[in-house]
Amino acid sequence: MHTSPRGVDSTKILTRRELAAVLADLAGKSPRSRNARMNLILVRLACCCGLRVSEIAGLRLSDLRTDLTRPHIRIRRGAAKGGHPRVVPLWWDAGTLQDLHEWKAERLSQDRDPDALVVACQQGKRLGTRLSRHTLRKRFRTACRALGLDRIRTLTIHHGRHTFISHALAGGRTLAEVRDAAGHANVSITSTYLHVAVEDQAVGNLFLFG
Fold first, then answer.
1. Fewest CB within 10 A of the end CB: N or C in the chain?
2. Do the domain assignments include residue 107?
3. pTM score, whole prediction
4. What is the 3-state secondary structure (H, E, C) of 110-147?
């Protein structure tokens, strides 16, 4: 087990190489598979936005504010842990913003209701219906198939949240910014993710600034 000086297990995050591999694999499958496209969005919401599985399950299309000057995700009071609403920035990463913007447009073409679910069943008569947290957890592991079976066995969807926080801090966002985006009660929780190794032999570009 690899830990930071504050005790955060670095195996609970996807490194830049791992996340890049997962995103590339899903992007390659997306043109021919609606489920792959949705799995890509699931990974984006978990790993690039830090949403909890309960927040992903209840997220509505109207919560994706992708057309604003400061595009963001709105986490509603009823969906947020502890009942504390928050805003998750989408301007931190261009790839995440683009994928979520395109998926929102696709979902609106399926279901004209702006309050339809972002992540929902894509099959036949059940199109647009809610997916359970258990199903979302299974889908996350399926989405990470490019990492191999041994790595998949160690992963949970909550590791996506650890990934987001660690990469955001390593990418230069301040503790206060990441605390607010993650919905932590205080900055001391966020600070436990400082110095967690997010790099490996290949450096990617998860967060693009400017």
1. C
2. yes
3. 0.90
4. HCCCCCCECCECCCHHHCCCECCHHHHHHHHHHHCHHH
